[in-house]
């Protein structure tokens, strides 16, 4: 077995997969994913990641059974029943929590173990391990940036998720000086204009230019000309902003701060996991932006594997398969039990994407802090 796919457990138990364990019956994994319908692209991408991982574990007797939820309630029920009929030992997936809600009352559900790609932390089913990169892991990794009494601005959309982020940010020693929620994409500009006190700063700036222009003696034309190239002179009264936004809204938020003269030269912007999406490298305003994530070197290695096999970049959820499958296999082939249970997975592990701990059916990760610097992702 290749070294990179070994899972090391740092608790009281330590093992790696070895030939002595191969005598056990095969591991049947039901990949319960949306392989058709609205989410078929995501589902098929993750299914490909599972197949690649199995290929790397070629010495193990593992069978993957695709179970198409068809991105629908009826499809999810049918997919689960197919898995039960085929006597799968473990369900990998689903991607969305709603799928579990749709099948939770079906006969046999409670007897089977699911390793889901979800990052949900509350209302977890006792037979489901949520393996996604959860919010607590991200907040825990950011604590070191908010250690002193320096206040910061919290900026994000008016969603239940952002309010959950705000609540968890109370763990920081630093306190919020202002909490700003924007209503929609169009409101981002209005809110950044207010929080930067742009109108007052701009007014003072124009008044100062006017006063200089009225001086007849020793008129400094170069200074006036230089000041006219800017909208403000006075800096904003904050040094740090935590932005709880993603994708275009994140880019737009920080770009508007820059437009109103609050940029990375004077303000430190912090956000949540960006998954190393290259689109964030294209926006100059995001220079020096800090975020938590999995191991970059591992991510790049997996990405190269995907480019070679599929001619595309890896999607972030796909990376989780490279830890899920080896971990499940290691536990299955090291136990005499014929049925996997969530409690068997409790422990701390060194995985392909980084270190993580499974406890109470959720996965907490030791994430690493990165920043954008000169159009590259750099470890801090």
Poorly predicted tracts of residues:
1-22
Any idea what the radius of gyration is?
Answer: 25 Å
Look at the structure and give the mean pLDDT. 90
Q: How many angstroms does the end-to-end distance come to?
A: 33 Å
Would you list the SSEs in sequence order as H and E? Answer: EEHEHEHEEHEHEHHHEHEEHHEEEEE
Strand order of the largest sheet: 3-2-4-5-6
Number of strands: 16
Estimate nothing, just give the exact number of structural domains.
Answer: 2
Can you count the helices?
11
Walk me through what this model shows.
By secondary structure, this protein is an alpha/beta fold. The chain has two domains: 3-132 and 296-366, Response regulator (Rossmann fold, 3-Layer(aba) Sandwich); 137-293 and 370-379, Rossmann fold. Helices cover 33% and strands 19% of the residues. It is built from eleven helices and 16 strands. The chain has helices at residues 40-56, 73-85, 97-103, 135-142, 160-168, 187-195, 198-213, 221-227, 247-259, 296-310, 321-332; strands spanning 8-9, 27-33, 62-68, 90-92, 114-116, 128-130, 152-157, 176-182, 240-244, 268-271, 290-293, 347-350, 355-359, 362-365, 368-373, 376-379. It has a five-stranded parallel β-sheet with strand order 3-2-4-5-6. Strands 1-12-13-14 form a four-stranded antiparallel β-sheet. The chain has a four-stranded parallel β-sheet with strand order 8-7-9-10, sandwiched between helices. Helix 1 crosses helix 11 (321-332) and helix 6 crosses helix 9 (247-259). The protein is elongated, with a radius of gyration of 25 Å.
């Amino acid at each position: 077995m290749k070294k990179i796919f070994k899972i090391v457990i740092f608790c009281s138990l330590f093992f790696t997969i070895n030939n002595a364990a191969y005598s056990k019956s095969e591991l049947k994994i039901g990949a319960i994913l949306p392989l058709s319908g609205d989410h078929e692209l995501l589902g098929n991408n993750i299914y490909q990641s599972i197949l690649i991982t199995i290929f790397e574990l070629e010495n193990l007797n593992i069978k993957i059974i695709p179970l198409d939820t068809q991105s629908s309630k009826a499809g999810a029920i049918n997919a689960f029943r197919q898995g039960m009929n085929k006597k799968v030992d473990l369900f990998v997936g689903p991607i969305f929590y709603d799928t579990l809600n749709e099948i939770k009352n079906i006969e046999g559900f409670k007897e089977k173990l699911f390793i889901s790609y979800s990052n949900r932390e509350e209302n977890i089913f006792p037979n489901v391990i949520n393996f996604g990169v959860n919010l607590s892991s991200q907040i825990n990794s950011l604590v070191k940036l908010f250690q002193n009494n320096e206040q910061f601005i919290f900026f994000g959309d008016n969603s239940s998720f952002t309010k959950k982020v705000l609540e968890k940010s109370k763990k920081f020693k630093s306190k919020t000086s202002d909490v700003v929620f924007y209503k929609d994409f169009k409101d981002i500009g209005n809110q950044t204009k207010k929080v930067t006190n742009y109108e007052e700063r701009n007014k003072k700036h124009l008044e100062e230019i006017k006063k200089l222009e009225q001086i007849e003696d020793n008129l400094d034309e170069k200074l006036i000309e230089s000041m006219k190239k800017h909208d403000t002179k006075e800096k904003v009264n904050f040094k740090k902003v935590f932005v709880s936004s993603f994708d275009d809204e994140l880019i737009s938020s920080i770009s508007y701060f820059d437009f109103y003269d609050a940029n990375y030269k004077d303000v430190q912007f912090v956000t949540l996991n960006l998954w190393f999406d290259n689109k964030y490298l294209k926006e100059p305003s995001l220079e020096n932006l800090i975020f938590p994530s999995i191991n970059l070197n591992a991510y790049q290695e997996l990405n190269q594997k995907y480019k070679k096999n599929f001619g595309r970049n890896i999607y972030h959820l796909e990376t989780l398969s490279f830890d899920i499958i080896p971990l499940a296999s290691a536990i299955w082939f090291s136990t005499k039990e014929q049925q996997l249970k969530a409690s068997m997975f409790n422990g701390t592990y060194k995985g392909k994407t980084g270190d993580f701990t499974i406890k109470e059916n959720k996965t907490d990760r030791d994430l690493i802090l990165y920043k954008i610097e000169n159009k590259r992702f750099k470890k801090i």
